């Protein structure tokens, strides 16, 4: 079982409306112990930090721990999900705006950088920022000041930036989707979070934590994992990481009898059925992806491209890209998050391409006002209207 020195949690067990997913992390596994040691060495500095890890590995909890171990611990920790910000309002959200700066700007409002003044600003899914905004973010980090939309006056800021991503920013830099200078500015110090499957000794302590939390929330007196259930948990792949584990425990508590959780209650086989690579669906006849290798053992992809080159289609690159996106989407059982992880790009890029291809429907339009952008599906994003009511240090999981 994890001791107090090896277990982090910033969740509120009294709140029935919040999930404890991705808000707890243990450091029992040797990989996790090494990560904890690196966090302790990096945290006291003022250096920007880039946290790299798969979705659900606990990037925000690590960012909060860096904040708590720094000299800024008495200041605010503000978390913003860049992937949830409408592209037209990103600048106003991050840097603030003046009254009348755009339609709907009925009052002047501070941005997230000003809100985090004296503390730490955590930008999750940093890879989703548009290129134009990356230029402005780089300038803010260099000059340590912001200019609100609709203003010509700069405002000094005192903020430590922690950014996080679940995509390979090096690939995004190579493809021109992320600025190289911003990448190196963010990665002054880096923390790589191992996936849950790579740190198996953390699985059972985490499961025990989630078991206690959900027993309390559901009003159950007591529940335990059977030895068979414990073995099943350790052997599972956990492509969804801590989030998937928490959901499995929650479901098991709802299904178990007599307070003893069995492997069947966890539904791990059902979860494995839709994970990428479990079983690729049948390919489409018109857009079939070429085999990885030819019958002679030579790379088949290059051979399959030759006939396409000979066709001389002026839209060849777009056709090949469409086939790649469609094949990856089918391979991931039409799961956008898994497709983005497979291709090493952001979820927003995958979603936009699938909408253009007609594979999924377009989302409903958003109102053109930052005041209406109060929250997203990710509960780490604060409302601009609510920040005045927040205490100097606040939990926003």
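^ Assign residues to that structure.
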């Amino acid at each position: 079982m994890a001791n107090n020195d090896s277990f982090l949690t910033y969740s509120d067990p009294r709140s029935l409306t919040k999930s404890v997913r991705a808000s707890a992390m243990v450091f029992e596994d040797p990989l996790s112990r090494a990560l904890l040691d690196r966090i302790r060495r990096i945290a006291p500095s003022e250096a920007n930090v880039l946290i790299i890890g798969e979705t659900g590995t606990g990037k925000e909890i690590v960012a909060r721990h860096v904040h708590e171990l720094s000299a800024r611990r008495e200041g605010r920790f503000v978390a913003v999900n860049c992937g949830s910000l409408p592209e037209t309002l990103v600048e106003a959200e991050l840097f603030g705006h003046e009254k009348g700066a755009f339609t709907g700007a009925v009052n002047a409002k501070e941005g997230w950088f000003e809100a985090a003044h004296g503390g730490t600003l955590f930008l999750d899914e940093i890879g989703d920022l548009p290129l134009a905004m990356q230029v402005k973010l780089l300038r803010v980090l260099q000059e340590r000041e912001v200019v609100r939309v609709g203003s010509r006056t700069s405002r000094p800021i005192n903020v430590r930036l922690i950014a996080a991503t679940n995509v390979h920013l090096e690939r995004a830099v190579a493809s021109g989707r992320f600025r190289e200078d911003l990448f190196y500015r963010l990665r002054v110090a880096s923390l790589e979070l191992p996936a849950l499957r790579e740190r198996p000794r953390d699985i059972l302590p985490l499961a025990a934590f989630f078991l206690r939390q959900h027993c309390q929330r559901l009003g159950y007196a007591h529940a335990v994992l059977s030895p068979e259930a414990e073995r099943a948990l350790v052997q599972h792949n956990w492509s969804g990481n801590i989030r998937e584990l928490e959901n499995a425990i929650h479901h098991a508590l709802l299904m178990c009898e007599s307070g003893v959780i069995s492997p069947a209650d966890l539904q791990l086989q059902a979860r494995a059925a839709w994970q990428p690579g479990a079983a690729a669906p049948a390919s489409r006849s018109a857009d079939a992806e070429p085999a990885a290798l030819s019958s002679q053992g030579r790379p088949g992809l290059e051979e399959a491209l030759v006939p396409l080159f000979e066709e001389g289609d002026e839209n060849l690159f777009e056709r090949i890209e469409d086939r790649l996106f469609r094949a990856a989407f089918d391979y991931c059982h039409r799961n956008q998050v898994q497709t983005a992880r497979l291709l090493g790009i952001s979820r927003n890029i995958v979603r936009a391409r699938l909408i253009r291809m007609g594979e999924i429907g377009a989302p409903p339009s958003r109102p053109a006002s930052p005041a209406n952008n109060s929250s997203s599906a990710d509960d780490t994003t604060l409302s601009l209207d609510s920040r005045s009511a927040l205490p100097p240090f606040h939990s926003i999981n």
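Residues 132 and 224 are 52 Å apart (CA to CA).
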